[in-house]
Amino acid sequence: xxxxxxxxxxxxxxxxxxxxxxxxxxxxxxxxxxxxxxxxxxxxxxxxxxxxxxxxxxxxxxxxxxxxxxxxxxxxxxxxxxxxxxxxxxxxxxxxxxxx
Length: 100
Hints:
- Helices cover 25% and strands 38% of the residues.
- It contains two helices and five strands.
- It is an alpha+beta fold.
- It has a five-stranded mixed beta barrel.
- It has helices at 14-23, 53-67, and strands spanning 4-13, 40-44, 47-51, 80-88, 91-99.
């Protein structure tokens, strides 16, 4: 049974993180989520939580809205997110997300 909770941490590209985990190349920090990301995860407290499909959709929309406010061509070195939802088996069912 999953209980409602909230997390704050670095928003990352889940596919990039999975590739790096399988090859043991680089830490999650090098997988900053971008507007091209389709599968998201949150690195919080040393653990990586993947988002459910609805959470990926909500996060992509939030990232697009945030991109409208960032300078063109500005590269992101990190992206912090506050996530509300419930976690089960390492996956967060996202209720809401706030990008910072």
